[in-house]
Amino acid sequence: MIKVNLLPYKAARKKEYIRLQISIFFLSIIFVTLSMYYYNITLNNKIDVYNVKIENIKNETAKYDKIIKEITDIKNRLDVLNKKTGVIKNLELNRKEPVRLLDTMTFMIIPKRMWFTYLEAKEKVVLIKGFALDNKTVADFMTRLEGSKLFDSVNLRNLKQEPYNKYTNLKEFVISCNKMPKERGRINFPK
Question: Are residues 54 and 88 in the same domain?
Fold first, then answer.
């Protein structure tokens, strides 16, 4: 038997085309949704990886900051220690200076013709007060001081005559000397 299709052919085709379009539309929405979901998961994974890297870097930075702080603390303590050792070395060098100065003065003085009443040694200046029998003794003493290479300039500040007893007048003198810079050279003692 022959079957006859009473429906119009174009209308059936149009319905089929609309169903195909709707199917493609929903499939593309599903495809776009799945693609966006996959892209979102990928980005979240990358974000997690970068967050872990950032956390590791922060931990390393904190560790290195602690080490840097310890190094800075050690450097500060080392600087303080160096300053202390410098002061100790300076004190060690300077502790012998008064003895050296007094020893030098014992060689500089003219025996039985003069004596000191006051000797003051500051950083760069030495002040000497005393008595001598005459002007020549004071001049010889100053010449010895200049020739010792311990003093840069020797200046007579004051020289006056003072009566000692009825029969003797002494010369009271005040001499200031500038110390030479420290060097490891030899001191020339008068003979």
Answer: yes
